[in-house]
Structures are given as C-alpha cells and as structure tokens.
Amino acid sequence: MNVPTYTKQKFTDQDGELLPSVQQFFDVFFTQAQENLSNDGMVIPALSTADINRICSTANSNAKPSGTLMYDNQTNQLKICILGVAKVIPTL
Description:
Structural class: alpha+beta
Strand content: 15-25%
Shape: elongated
Number of strands: 6
Number of helices: 2
Helix content: 25-40%
Strand order of the largest sheet: 3-4-5-6
Order of helices and strands: HEEEHEEE
C-alpha cells in the first residue's frame, strides 16, 4: 500500500474549503485504504523474489523492518522479513 506523505501546509482556503493539494492527499489516501484494507481482509503486496530479497536485505539502506509481509508472485509463497532475510511462511 502506498500511503502518501502529508507535508505540513495550510489546510483550507479562506472559505473553509480544502485546498487542492490537501484534497489530492485524501483522495490518494482513501483510495489506497479502500483497495488494500477491507472487511474481507488485507491485500499483501505482491513482488518478485528478487525484489523481496532486496527489500529485506540489511545491505539495502531502505530495508524494511523484521515483520514486513510480502507475497512472492513467482513462487506463490507468503514471506516475512526477519533480521534481513526473507523467510517463507509455511502453509497450514
């Protein structure tokens, strides 16, 4: 899910209407939330094996923390980053 970053700025115009940049933020935020979170469950990001390994690797300065879930769309496996390594979550 790509949650937009909100920057501190003026929120409304003199009439109390949302500024276009603020409206855009909310539009993107709510679209992402509606597409990825629902009463039916959460959509885990689907990525390639190479991307998952890169994202989890501690050699990557933007590595995701332990506990990050991703779905490997090449091996059809759910994976979790643990201490810089992508581990397969076994099926039950």
